[in-house]
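General statements about sequence and structure are easier to judge against a single worked case. When preparing material for the folding task, we compiled for one chain both its residues and its backbone structure tokens. The amino acid sequence and the backbone structure tokens for this protein are reproduced below:
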Amino acid sequence: MNETSRKILILEAFYGGSHKQLVDYLLNILQEDGQQNVHFISMTDKKWHWRSRTSALYFAEQIKHTSQNYSSLFVSSTTNLTELIGLRPDLITCRKMLYFHENQLIYPVRKHQERDFQYGYNQILSCLTADIILFNSKFNMTSFLTNINSYLKVMPDYRPKNIVEQIEPKCQVVYFPLNITLPMNCVADVDRESQLLHIVWSHRWEHDKNPTSFFDVIVRLHNEGYQFRVSVLGQCYTDIPDIFVQAQELLKDHIYKWGYQEEKQDYIDVLKTADVALSTANHEFFGVSMLEAVSCGCYPLCPKRLVYPEIFNDEYLYNTDQQMYKRLKDFCQHPNVVRKHEIEVDLSRFDGKKLRSKYLEFFR
């Protein structure tokens, strides 16, 4: 098939946040590469659970039937690829690429009985159907592959065999592409040495990002009389957890910015004024917001778990909430320590410009 006849289909069932960033990046580089025959269908970033359950049927109805078969299909693991191919068998001949922003096999549910087996099971089925399986980090890939067998043990009987052996050869890691030059559009116009330490937490307002640990430590600093500014960003959906409402009132004298920044440049502007970017996550497979903060000059402080040891060295990791508290307390007292620190994080690994040829190769 020659270059001009290639027909590419990109589907995204949760078009928001990092999912949107990746798809927009793909559409842009494919256009720059001269690919004119790219079809894109998306669903809004609402009601994730229902997107995961039903997006395959929606896409099956929306994809046009044509005389020319698609050469490539790119879909995130939010969609059950197996269901989609079953509904649209005409897609079976194309190269089917499955991208994992996260995996459901180790999602941190509050109680074991709350885990919905179907979400992880759908991802396993999708892997069996896919031709290429892409993960945004080694941690994501390893945690998925090493937990398949234990996950399937929940089945009372007739458990499948050799699933990992079928899936693993199709897997590879390709880091999430970042526009690491974007923050240079904003230059802080304040004398930062005269300012209080500015702490930013820029994650989804949901329990898997562990806001409780963050607010426990920040409120403790407040109660003990330490001076600082804080910005709590990140996206929230239908229900705002009570802890955010309570913390907003308690910390009102410290708040610089509060809530999701609709415009990307406004978000970047906040990061450019911040000194420390903090994560307390219990569920993280790449950490776009932390790397964006680093590219803006923020000192990263992350738990020593999940993907973070893959990206950050020990200088930027803590083991316990008490260690996090001590680090932040010291930074409140000596903010210039972090402001003058030269951050040792190799952002070039995630530079979208450098990753461009890697991503394009999947569509050729």
